[in-house]
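Section handout 9: paired folding examples.
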Amino acid sequence: MHCPFCRHGDSRVIDSRTSDDGLSIRRRRQCPQCGGRFSTIETASLNVIKRSGAVEPFSRDKVISGVRKACQGRPVTDADLAILAQRVEEAVRQTGLSQIDANEIGLAILGPLRELDEVAYLRFASVYQAFESLDDFETSIAELRADHARASLADAAAGGDESA
């Protein structure tokens, strides 16, 4: 690491700390030549392989802009979208891969978006999964209803256990 003050080609790490989101490391460094101190932030690179074959760096902003269209007119805040994008990035990074297909990012978006807003989820899924007919919507809605029914049964069972 070059010193930003004297351009010496080496530096010594004084302190290392993980960032709040756990996705980067902040290192405090000192130049052995001039004694200047500076900080660096290290992150693992994560690249997206687009359908065209092009490779570009992962961007939370692109996740947010893609999901924002599906959330138009829905009670979803910018903070909600930022949290969703962070969850997507964390899920993608947990794969341990340095390059990931754009398709995998879309799949990683579906779960958190479904939890955030089911209507936005249906909108996003209809485009992302290329719904071709009303049957595709009906199938997806039936899955949502079945999940609601299972959750209601689980809540009822949990409530019954507490009163015993």
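Moving on to protein 2 of 2.
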Amino acid sequence: MKLNKLIIPIALGVMTLASCTADDPDENKSVIVTPNEEQTEFDKWLETNFAIPYNIDFKYRYKETESDYDYYTVPAKYEDAVKMAHLVKYLCVESYDEVAGTDFTRRYFPKMFFLIGEWEYRNNGTYILGTAEGGRKILLAGLNYLSDNIKNGPEYMNRYYFKTIHHEFTHIMNQTKVIPPDFQLVTGKDYVGDMWSEEPYDREYLSRGFITAYSQNSYQEDFAEMLSEYITHDAKTWNDTMEAADEAAAEKAKKTGEEAVHASELINSKLDIVRRYMKENFNIDIDVLRETVQRRQADIFAGKVDLTDITVK
């Protein structure tokens, strides 16, 4: 079974952990699976909005067998699980509905989401944001930081959650339709595997023709990063990043005496292959997809979407 993971470096800083204030869970908002549990209002909302229309099982209760035994994991907070369900529906599921049609979403979108409260920390200074397993399941970590990241704005939300979903969904699409061989040739000799988070690769990725540090891991991760970065950022941000890539490449060449790499050309060459791949295989225009995602994202932060309403309509 193929397992893809999106990993980022651990930022230095202080993390505050909240302790339990009561020994007995609220049975109406329990995030622990119990035998013969009754269906809650949230369960009914999930059934109406995920299970029935898309056959998606959105698991917010903690279930040990769905977790990775290599990491210490904790349940996602109920309130954050409700918000995440709304966000996944509005920003992801319905974005693909709008651009590619409901039949596409039903056929290709992952059939299970599983939420955990904490990140999955590794011993090399990185942590896992999410995983895609067997073309079927997406695990989303760090749910207990969701409310704070919403307050911090779209960049934080995309970095920690929604870019992750689009990244992992790209892996799932790649399992259905393979990545074109010419994608691997653009920066093929420059992939560095797990060294992507080490010096100098963690700083020099743009000058080397990669959109993120993690893109340097492999061509598969590069492809998923290209699509997910593109659609979660607006045109100005992308163009600014391309300028920064060329400036970084020129500065590096000045220091080393080597010929400057046309970094933006490398990145945009790979983007063109991603664009062609999505259009030819799924009839999706990634520019239209980006416009849709950006518009819906603006709706969220303009307060146009109630992230707490679980009324079944």
